[in-house]
Amino acid sequence: LSPLPKTELPAPYTPWMEIAQDLPQLISSRQLRARVQQMPQLSTWQLRGHEELHLAHLVLSFITMGYLWQEGEEGTVKVLPRNLAVPFWEVSQTLGLPPILSHADFVLANWRRKNPTPSAGCAHRNLDTIISLPGGESLRGFILVTFLVEKAAVPGIKAIVQAIHAILQQDEESLHKALQQLAEAIGDMSQALKRMHDHVDPAVFYAVIRIFLSGWKDNPAMPEGLIYEGVAEEPLRYSGGSAAQSSVLHAFDELLGIRHGQHSSAFLHRMRDYMPPPHRAFVEEIHRAPSLRQVVLSSGSVRLRTAFNRCVSALVDFRSYHIIIVTKYITVAAAKAKARQAELGDRPGPPTVKPPSALEAKGTGGSHISIFLKSIRDSTRAGLIPA
């Protein structure tokens, strides 16, 4: 998570910030595309440091998604205008991120504290997003619950470093302690994920929010991709935002030696291109470290094997619960949306309320979601060390 992200860009970039702060209304009133067309062409050279660049990427990615999906999946455009495409491309190149909304923007850099000094015990109520899209409280809840899942993972990330250090030092006691901390962190992530039910309406998520996370790769609504005017003459294709772009589960998989099937593994590795480069490097560094599984097996320690298996089981439980969430918010919500649409018939309504049929069975990253999630859950379970 970005530590205390910036919430304002320097004065020259006020036109971007004004549009970004007004996005939900501009999209719902179908005025965003007109506003973007009037936006001045701004250079990115006055952006200083990673924090300003990350905020610029967040702002431009949200404006881009709103611009693309303002009219729903049946009213897409083929060209992103130069005054948006060029600065978005430049900022993306500097950060090593793709020019599309990713998990790094949507969650990791899109949070702020309402009160800088909150009272004890209500830290989660003090959170808010920096930039928003249509979806109201459900969108806010979706972003911030995902934020809390990432936050719960922090002790687990630290435990990875401690575990690898313990392996290199041949310190069984420290390794056992690190594995206990990792299992506890994964369990806390599952508990945080359960809060989705309290803060996100499935109908709003499916019919309103989800389309704005959709990309232009493996998406039937935009089969040719998107031309970034002033950047490339040919269309470019990028996957939409996906939880698979979070480095957390990739890091856990690498430490625990989880091996996914060929198709799932190829998709997950492609999602690493959507991570900030230091995150990607961290995951790859874990991959190069000595095998934890081999250390546990060769030690013959029942205590280490039990701690290792507890981590794997916690990861299986997390992935199983993710399937429950996806079933509720996509599979069941899709069926209900389709039934509602059948009742409405051809009566006019806003395009974003229509079921986004192009991604009915797919994740916003482009994977066939149910098959993919069950596959990685099952391959995680296969990582248990038998007694």
Automatic annotation (TrEMBL):
GO biological-process terms attached to the record: 'de novo' NAD+ biosynthetic process from L-tryptophan; immune system process; L-tryptophan catabolic process to kynurenine
Q: Which gene encodes it?
A: Ido2
This chain belongs to the protein called: I23O2 dioxygenase
State the superkingdom: Eukaryota
**Keywords assigned:** Dioxygenase, Heme, Immunity, Iron, Metal-binding, Oxidoreductase, Tryptophan catabolism
Name the family: Belongs to the indoleamine 2,3-dioxygenase family.
Entry-linked InterPro entries: Indolamine_dOase, Trp/Indoleamine_2_3_dOase-like
Q: Give the source species.
A: Semnornis frantzii
Alphabetical GO CC annotations of the entry are: cytoplasm
The UniProt annotation puts the region (Disordered) at 341-363
The answer to whether the entry has keyword Ribonucleoprotein is: no
Q: Does the keyword Manganese apply?
A: no
PANTHER family in the record: INDOLEAMINE 2,3-DIOXYGENASE, INDOLEAMINE 2,3-DIOXYGENASE 2
**A GO term, aspect molecular function:** metal ion binding
Give the binding site residues for heme b. H322
